[in-house]
Write the structure tokens for this entry.
Amino acid sequence: MVLSLRNVLAPAAALEVAKVHLKNARETENSELALTFCGEAITALSRIRRSVRKTLVASSCAEDRSLRNEIAATYLEFGRLLDRLESRSKAKACYMNVEKWG
């Protein structure tokens, strides 16, 4: 199954794609490739519709809170990784998304 990142992704699918890219970014020793994986992951997470994000953020449902917290934690991990890769502006954008999701 091939996911087109040009389309909207459900939050759980976007999170799954992002986690795969995070794993790959952590495991490679090539910093350029790590930055590429980070970019792909951030693109996947950005495919979650704004209206869906707002609904998840406002929801008090335990399942929604859990998914929202996982997405925020994933952005935080990417921010830290991007900091280590000295990509400060991208890291800052990730930290801002942590606030949006958290």
Q: What stands out?
A: The helical segments are 11-27, 31-46, 50-58, 62-84, 88-101. The chain has a mean pLDDT of 90. Residues 28 and 89 are 21 Å apart (CA to CA).
